[in-house]
Amino acid sequence: MSSSVIDFIATEARFGARNYEPIGVVLSRGEGVWVWDTQGNRYLDCLSAYSAVSQGHCHPKILAAMVEQAHRLTLTSRAFHNDQLALFYEEIAALTGSHKVLPMNSGAEAVESAIKSVRKWGYEVKGVPDGQAEIIVCANNFHGRTLGVVGFSTDPETRGHFGPFAPGFKVIPFGDAAALAEAINPNTVAFLVEPIQGEAGVVIPPAGYFTEVRELCTANNVMLVLDEIQTGLGRTGKLLAEQHEGIEADVTLLGKALSGGFYPVSAVLSNNDVLGTLRPGQHGSTFGGNPLACAVARAAMRVLVEEGMIENAARQGARFLEGLKDIRANTIREVRGRGLMLAVELHPEPGRARRYCEALQAKGILAKDTHEHTIRIAPPLVITSDQVDWALERFAAILTQDFS
Ligand SMILES: *Cc1c(COP(=O)(O)O)cnc(C)c1O
């Protein structure tokens, strides 16, 4: 490593809160599926900023929309109207079939906003006694890092020593519809769940789970809130992961790829009166719905559709999954995925996945370990067959070695 690289890493460590443990690479440029470090080494990005860069790094059309809008108007606050928000609403509603939209910035803010909205709906529409609303969530969930959200996490690292936490959440196992049926009571306002648990290691629920979940929620007047912040916008090979299950959520949360990685943009979408309970002054965000965010998100959604990225995610995801399944290696416990949301689970051993990710880095692939023994693979949705094959060669070369 050159001295400058050591300086970047050492300076981060000296001044920064150490709430991350990055792989030892300092990136300075990106284009499509590729990123380059400060020394000019090229890597295939198999993380895509946790699926925020689904459209590929520095997509030229999103970039152009951002620069053009930045020259005209960036922030008005919602105290005034701007000429981008209405168009963003129209386009995201048309794309997703939603009726109401609440624009926010980060994913966690969208989750918080959904929690506030379904509680209000519970009190004002469903008739739950004030202060009694319950929301059901799943074990091993990941919905962000705010205090409200980590309070119902089941991961000791995520919640440890951050309490006390807000009451009103009930945790059930993921993929278990009978547990949901048992947990619902008259005060239940919502079931908040990821279609596929991403941070937990790309955990796909059993077939038919969401059909039962949908029926239970409908029968009990419980809002089904799908956190599609990671699974949404084509990542799993469909626009929304709910489409694999043939269901529709009452509330859908989007973030990450909603801006193609240029800017924090998130949204709460609903197809009923949940968002209708919010009145002026009851919820807001200085940056939420700003014209720069709206222009960026509009371009990000447009290229996703126009350039066939969702279909490509399905096609290349199938190719990638098949290729990974063909790798014969003692270290692999399971390979799974849907679309370009893939994971290789290794036989458990502390730090094993991290060592494989470091070996992959040396071969020109950036992937991220999760939970000690799972390698998550989520390249931009613009990846080509040749690039998938290029990656598979390297995965095969590394996974068949022993880094224990
Ligand atoms: C990333 C993520 C979030 C949080 O998004 P931030 O923008 O980091 O706040 C919430 N839910 C899911 C499923 C995510 O993957």
TrEMBL record:
SUPFAM superfamilies to which the protein is assigned, alphabetical: PLP-dependent transferases (SSF53383)
GO biological process: L-proline biosynthetic process
Gene Ontology molecular function terms on file: identical protein binding; ornithine aminotransferase activity; pyridoxal phosphate binding
Pathway(s) served: Amino-acid biosynthesis; L-proline biosynthesis; L-glutamate 5-semialdehyde from L-ornithine: step 1/1
Enzyme class: transferase
Cofactor list: pyridoxal 5'-phosphate
Keywords: Aminotransferase, Pyridoxal phosphate, Transferase
Pfam families tied to this protein: Aminotran_3 (PF00202)
Family affiliation: Belongs to the class-III pyridoxal-phosphate-dependent aminotransferase family.
Protein name: ornithine aminotransferase
